[in-house]
Amino acid sequence: AGKRTDFDAALHRKIEKRDLNFRGVWFPDEQFFNIEFDSAAHFSYATFSGNVTFIGVSFGEVDFTRATFNGKVIFDGANFHEIAHFAYATFNAEAEFREANFSEEANFAGASFVGAAAFNGATFTRKANFYLATFNSEADFSAARFGEAMFDDATFKHRARFAGDERYGGFAGNASLILRFARIEKPEQFVFHTVTLWPSWFVNTDTRKFEFTNVDWVWRDTKDEIVSLREKEVSLPHRMLSITCRHLAINAEDNHRYEEASKLRFMAMEARRLEHWRGFDFRRL
To answer: What letter does residue 21 receive in the DSSP assignment?
Structure first.
């Protein structure tokens, strides 16, 4: 008990001094409920509650519910052996969970991501809960290269839910979602509910079995969608957008959303036309 008291005192002194480098630190079931981190925080390669692994972080019952991260926070390589509690946490800068391993539920319900959220190479073994979570920048679950490091795409082995309501949650402002090549083992349990989406976000992702409920699609000119894909360095953007729109149209038709399906099929055909004629429409001669 004395050692635990000493540890808690030392921990809070570090937080008060804004010394938030916790790489390699062992945490005895520490709780971070409602704590504010004023500067960049590093939790990569830390160990929580003594669940030691050879690489990465081992997390036991650690709770970041309603925590506020005012600087960049890094959980790269983390292993969450119990439920990862980030409900209603606020990330005011970049949040990195690259190659994190969530063995139990990843609970980000109500979380607010002001900066970019990087989940490249993350593995969600159980439920990935983003109910009422708000993304204001890029949410990246794809394979990516950062400097000399190459990160694989994310893996979803169970249910995933991105959902909002009339007031909270979803993708706001300049937010975007990148799912390219993400491995989704149960696509029928991949859910989008009451959110705003763009067709180009689902390039190189098979959406035919996804669940889309009360989704508001942003319809813009096909050329603009292709330009967006080029900026993201997507190969064969015309063809990939066409395939994506066809998959989304099949999903819409199977669920009796026929007006939506019609718009998606038109975009698919327009993308192929632009590819074949490089944007020149002979029908207008």
So the answer is: B
Dist CA 109 CA 66 (whole Å): 10
DSSP 122-183: -EESS-EEEET-EESSEEE-S-EEETTEEEPPPEE-S-EEEE--SSS-EE-TT-EEE-TT-E
Q: What is the pLDDT of residues 28-85, one digit of tens each?
A: 655 677 888 888 998 886 665 534 333 344 445 568 899 999 999 999 988 888 888 8
Report DSSP state, residue 48. Answer: E
Helices 258-277 and 222-231 cross at an angle (nearest 10°) of: 70
CA atoms within 13 A on the CB side of 60: 12
* Cα–Cα dist 54/180, whole Å: 30
Judged on CB neighbours under 10 Å (0-12, 13-18, 19+), 143 is: middle
Terminal Cα-to-Cα distance of the chain (whole angstroms): 84
Q: Bridge-partner residues for 58, per DSSP?
A: 47, 79
Residue 227 in tokens: 């330009």
Give dist(CA 60, CA 81) in Å, integer. Answer: 6
- Tokens coding 48: 């929580």
CA distance 251 to 196: 17
Residue 86 tokens read as: 């980030």
Longest dimension (CA), the chain: 85
Sheet holding 160-163, edge to edge: 84-85, 106-107, 128-131, 160-163, 190-193, 211-213
Could you tell me whether strands 117-118 and 95-96 are parallel, antiparallel, or unpaired per DSSP bridges?
A: parallel
- Below-50 pLDDT ranges, the chain: 50-59, 281-285
pTM (2 d.p.):
0.86
Distance CA 117, CA 98 (A): 9
